[in-house]
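Trying the structure run again after the queue cleared.
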Amino acid sequence: MLDDFIQANKLEAKLVFAEHEVHGKTKVASLAEVPEENVIKVILYNGSDNQYFLAVLPAYKKADLEKLCALQDCEQAMEIEEDETEEITGYSKGAIPPISVYGIELFVDKSVMRLDKVACLASDEKTVLVISPKEIIESAWQEPRVEEITK
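Done. Tokens:
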């Protein structure tokens, strides 16, 4: 599914496949051949009234839920659990790619945009996506919001 999206959109992004499950930003960075600071995570949140949104941020940072709620005009945001994440996105929690998820608003932390290439688990725990932040923005189903969303 993700490979088809990359090909259909003519992205320079690539998927790197591991023999075993990849855990932690150090292993993701090593497999992707990028610095650890370039490893990102994609988190699915529910704002209010099932207004889901995705946050793309460096793996070493935490999302600032107050900032996200202010941007989403919600009182509270909650991270979605494993079973519901897969049902909503088609991907498992911890392996949501920053591309190919339709119908869900995407927020990208400004610090991600300063990087040439980023990497994250995508689809499953054995697949790493290497992509430029520019391609994340250009291939989104709607214009992502680039904001300061971390603490």
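The longest helix spans residues 25-32. Worth checking whether this holds up in the mutant runs.
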